[in-house]
Prior knowledge:
This is PEP-CTERM sorting domain-containing protein. By secondary structure, this protein is an alpha+beta fold. It has two helices and eleven strands.
Amino acid sequence: xxxxxxxxxxxxxxxxxxxxxxxxxxxxxxxxxxxxxxxxxxxxxxxxxxxxxxxxxxxxxxxxxxxxxxxxxxxxxxxxxxxxxxxxxxxxxxxxxxxxxxxxxxxxxxxxxxxxxxxxxxxxxxxxxxxxxxxxxxxxxxxxxxxxxxxxxxxxxxxxxxxxxxxxxxxxxxxxxxxxxxxxxxxxxxxxxxxxxxxxxxxxxxxxxxxxxxxxxxxxxxxxxxxxxxxxxxxxxxxxx
Length: 241
Ligand SMILES: [Ca+2]
Ligand SMILES: [Ca+2]
């Protein structure tokens, strides 16, 4: 946990924000079901500020998610969330929405499969970027759920980051040092932003999920090896005796 995200610091930040009348500087992130991690966030009034932060090599890059509820007006599509680029401003690309335009409750589910070791995947970090030129569409709020291999979806965390108010700009939230292991799918559900104005929607530009195939627990492997050594010793002792 970074010092800036301690409960005390968060409380102080929230208090100073209230006193100054400014938008909250911190993303509100809540972890569920024993999951934990570190949280950091940045925001800018410049729509394309985080163009260079997008990954094109993360675990879900290039994936086509199972989707429900998205707004696909003006070329918007949730596939933009995993295309490896941030996307341009509306007017620069023929009045096209170069991102995933949410509705409240819209979902994108990425199926990872069982991985190289048949044990699913460990997820170490998640980065979400939202951006738009105005109307608070650069704010973001998500519920993230993961499915353990052979199990069902359980909530990992909720993100609520709305520092832009009804203005333009970009937000980026990073969850890191996550203790997610053995999952075969991850689901993002869009929640309401902007106090419900603009139908509670925002424009996600990219979701990057970093992880690796789950490997067997080193402790279990070590215990297995120790057990084999003990067994050998007993057999040798029995033969010698
Ligand atoms: Ca994108
Ligand atoms: Ca990506």
